[in-house]
């Protein structure tokens, strides 16, 4: 990851640099992450700016989230209920926009919930669209993906297709539980890291979670968790209904409830992105062929061996208009 500033707009951005291994073609998840992210323009979704390629890296430029991730706020510590409600409302706002655009995240977790703005009034930014599904481009969700502690029962079972909108609601509920308690809901003390063992799987399958005895939580907040953690997705609360729950409408400003379009929308078209990816694939194939030819030649004559080191990704390799911070 690199922090950079656009020379003309002066905007701070984060550049995710993916090293291009010559043995493997560009992962389909990377392409899906870029194209799905490109479609989304909302104040609670990390802004996509552009993608470009160097000789050694594929570089994804996104909005810079200056306040870090939600993981740093709720790992091992509890959040006040009012603060958790404000952040959760923003998370659901961004998630509802994703679903309205036909994009389902499938990998919601605290590490993918970034924060921007001030420490006292942070703005949620959803990121991490590598496992996202598009209702337009992709088939129905079937595969078991995502972090183990956030998977809904139907994903853990992996017995066929599932409703990705309902699995996103389940994962959002896990995030809410973490904010309120500082821990994952279906893990016991000896398995706090979230490894999917037999006990944890049983708890997930039955929606069995416990609240710490010393936690003072309103009945409305407890009701939210109970409605979200229903093993049967048909009985689980829908996202639209969840956003109207009394616990969320209490103390939530109209601005957060309605959401806002984001500033700085990407000007790069989907065709332009596809072209960048195609050229990156061709470049990797050429490098792979060249590497294979060198290896064959080296087997014949050791004097012809040549070390090919990875190209550096310094300031001179960055896209015009960007400079490394």
Automatic annotation (TrEMBL):
Recorded superkingdom: Eukaryota
Annotated Basic residues bias: 281-290
InterPro entries: Aur-like, Kinase-like_dom_sf, Prot_kinase_dom
Cleavable signal peptide: none
Keywords, alphabetical: ATP-binding, Kinase, Nucleotide-binding, Serine/threonine-protein kinase, Transferase
Region (Disordered): 281-325
Gene3D superfamilies found in the cross-reference section: Transferase(Phosphotransferase) domain 1 (1.10.510.10)
Protein name: G384 protein
Organism listed in the record: Coccomyxa viridis
Protein encoded by which gene: g384
